[in-house]
Amino acid sequence: MSAKSTANRFQTFEERANPALVAPRVAALRNQLKSHKLAAFLVPRADAHRGENVPAGDERLAYMTSFTGSAGMAVVALEKAALIVDGRYTLQAPQQTDINTFEIVDLSPTATADWLTKNLKKGDKVGYDGWLHTPKEIAALEKKLSEKGIELVEVHNLVDAIWEDRPAPPTNDIYTLEDSQTGKNAADKLAEIQAKMVEKNADHLVLTLPESTNWLLNIRGSDISNTPVSLGFAIVPQHGVTRFFVQPAKINPVIQAELSDVTVLEPIEELEEALKSMMTDSVWFDDATTPIKLLNIAKSVGATIITDKDPVVIAKARKNPAEIDGMKAAQKSDAIAMAKFLSWLDAEAPKGGLTEIDIVEKLEDCRRESNELLDISFETISGSGPNGAIVHYRVTENTNRTLNPGELMLVDSGGQYRNGTTDITRTMATGDTTAEQRKHFTLVLKGMIALSRVHFHKGATGAHLDALARQFLWNEGLNYLHGTGHGVGALLGVHEGPCGISHVNHNVLEEGNILSNEPGFYLEGEYGIRIENLIMVVPSEKNEKFLKFDTLTYTPIDLRLIEKELMTPDEIEWLNDYHQKCYELIADRLEDDKKEWLKQATRAI
């Protein structure tokens, strides 16, 4: 598990969007629609594993629309087309696609169905690829469309039919983790999942999420960028070892021997036949994540279908002591890197001349110094001035701005270290600040502190807590159009279910869950503000029926942007205590000049 050399950076800056390619590709897809007698075709930003990051050959949404965001849906009809995106991408999407070809539509639970029923007529057929949609998605869509007499039809992927030189699936090696890092051996994990299968009376469990299969088998890989997983599909029997279906090139005697206690590796081409063999069996699928293609295969041979949540997802989100220790160690490594980076930025930014790419590269260099970095956990968001207001901004060679002294600088970044995953956002002053900037920053900080300090009853969900982080912005008639927090994996996906903090997340928060805490504020065309720490659910000392959060991230928050008069004594006490811990955690690991910077950056106010 060696990191890449500094000559081969984890993040690149090529411009992936090319709106000029959109119209001819849509025209080619429409020819496919005509030949298949379809009125429209669905192009989700998804692969068969439902991962946030997908292999190059599954970037169909980007191929068709030129939009490179991590979520979205395109609907291409014979005469019109729509690109459906959420609030993170309302600025980015129209900049990247051909808006004469694609109408930009705000995401809602029924956005796709609403657009189709508005633009199609009774008797029309809509095609979809069964590998890229879940049973729950299709059922909801069918219900809406059938009311208008519109039919959904499963077909081979029409984008693939027009995509010349489409990249092949990844075949990178599988590697195993030590039990000391995972906290539990794979055989014990398998036994616990099989016990849940007995309770459900399920003969087989089908796992399709890469984080689930990799956590269960104590393996990792490098099939996709930023998330250290090996792609494959698992069929878990109620008794015996798992069957893990992967690209044949991954199967070798060494890795098979290492995994022989818990799984047998099989070529992915044999997955469908394996499902067809389950004629008299009961098969457990998660209908919110499994490709409908797989469920339909089992259903077609008469298998009894059980639909319920993937049981690994909940087990994986409750970090065990070894995973927690690893995550804390990763956050400490990251805190050292961030201190080095922020002290450098403080010295260089006021001089002028720094570009957004310079800032990304310096931060990666600081993280590499630990010799523990395997990858970045997502592409660094490096937004200077107005680019900071683009929530998921990705700097490219074409968009690269020079940071002007006095502008706000927003950097959202993270690392995949050998022992855990990090995610942190800081917004920095680079010169004189305005009263408006300080007010907005302080309102965001107050929301982050409120969530950091809350004690909550067992059984509470992220939906119960989301407003705590928004309350101070709301009181000023302000808001942000993204969730307040997401789950974070342990050397897995930086965005992990099922828990999160948003008005739509109703999953119960449990001890050992690790989440982000990242309220923000964005003034289009001027600046963005976001402050993000990772927090972990732990028991509350106030009442055995209550829980609270422990903060895991320890990096200074820019004191130059704080309007102290807007803060309460309790908030100031929290901030001063937090900064004292920031100093104590890493000061002895820094050179004298960086240590002096840290001392100033964490001074009490």
Could you walk me through the main structural features you see in this protein, from its secondary elements to its overall organization?
A hairpin with a 2-residue loop joins strand 18 and strand 19. Helix 14 crosses helix 15 and helix 16 packs antiparallel against helix 17. It contains 19 helices and 28 strands. With 605 residues, the chain is an alpha+beta fold. It folds into 3 domains: 144 residues, 3-Layer(aba) Sandwich (Creatine Amidinohydrolase, Chain A, domain 1), CATH 3.40.350.10; 143 residues, Creatinase/prolidase N-terminal domain (Creatine Amidinohydrolase, Chain A, domain 1, 3-Layer(aba) Sandwich); 281 residues, Creatinase/methionine aminopeptidase superfamily (Creatine Amidinohydrolase, Alpha-Beta Complex), CATH 3.90.230. The N terminus is likely disordered. Belongs to the peptidase M24B family.
Instruction: Give the helix/strand class.
Output: alpha+beta
Helix content class: 25-40%
Helical stretch tally: 19
Oligomer: single chain
Number of separate structural domains:
3
- What is the strand content? 15-25%
Mean pLDDT: 96
Number of strands: 28
CATH architecture of the largest domain: Alpha-Beta Complex
CATH superfamily of the largest domain: Creatinase/methionine aminopeptidase superfamily
Strand order of the largest sheet: 4-3-2-1-5-6
CATH topology name of the largest domain = Creatine Amidinohydrolase
What's the Cα radius of gyration?
24 Å
Pfam families: Creatinase_N, Creatinase_N_2, Peptidase_M24, Peptidase_M24_C
Domain Peptidase M24 C-terminal: 545-605
Keywords: Aminopeptidase, Hydrolase, Metal-binding, Protease
Domain Peptidase M24: 326-537
